[in-house]
Request: fold
Amino acid sequence: MSIIPTLKKDYIYKLAKQGKRIDGRGFNEYRPITIEPGIIRKAEGSARVKIGNTQVVAGVKMDVGEPYPDTPDSGVITTSAELIPLASPDFEAGPPQEDAIELARVVDRGIREAEVVKLEELCIEPGEKIWIVFIDIHVIDYDGNLFDCASLASLAALYTAIVPAEKFDLGENYPLPMRGEPPISCTAAKFNNALVFDPLLDEEEVAEARLTVATDAKGDLHAMQKGLSGGFTVDEVKKIIKGAIVNGREIRKKLQESIEKVKQNDT
Reply:
């Protein structure tokens, strides 16, 4: 480890002991969040989300395809993520790296386990034709907490997406069938016995463990993803879940407000 990262780690650890963070936030506090749905006209759904300096764009495209043999009357979701070199010097061009695969998997799991997309309504002909929903995640700027930013962008894109039925001679276009209030993913990092939500890149670089928790409006858990080599105690996990529920409520309000604005503009 070089001298600069070591000094940075010592500084972040020292602040944590004092109950402080390098940007002045509280341990449970998120950076400012901006949600902008409908930024890509050629996509069925899209959104740009900024959490602090972290910026992600998500696009939704749809196509007609064959169902899986074990779900002949259900649509399909497939999620991919691209970490472009422009977003961070640590990202490389070429095939998806391990970080990109993990990001896509975490976002996909949160959406799939909550069953927010009514896949049963995306069946065109049982056993023959269904709608395939492609979620493409593009990281534009990386300053920590990609999981929450990518998840939020994907949800905003889905909840404002339109099924392109006219394009395939399947009737009139209609909104992508979605269920109720979406699950919200909240991520916490642990370092020097401190638990901080919405970690900055500098905090992620010194973190020992990371936990992403997706909860719904009722506070029920839908998905959890643990990262890095460190561990959490039972009490720490409970504390993170509680914080995820509280933060999730506020983030969900922002998401719903952005979705409503799009719907009002379309009417």
Observations:
- The chain has five helices and twelve strands.
- The helical segments are 3-17, 98-114, 146-159, 201-206, 234-266.
- The two ends are 57 Å apart (CA to CA).
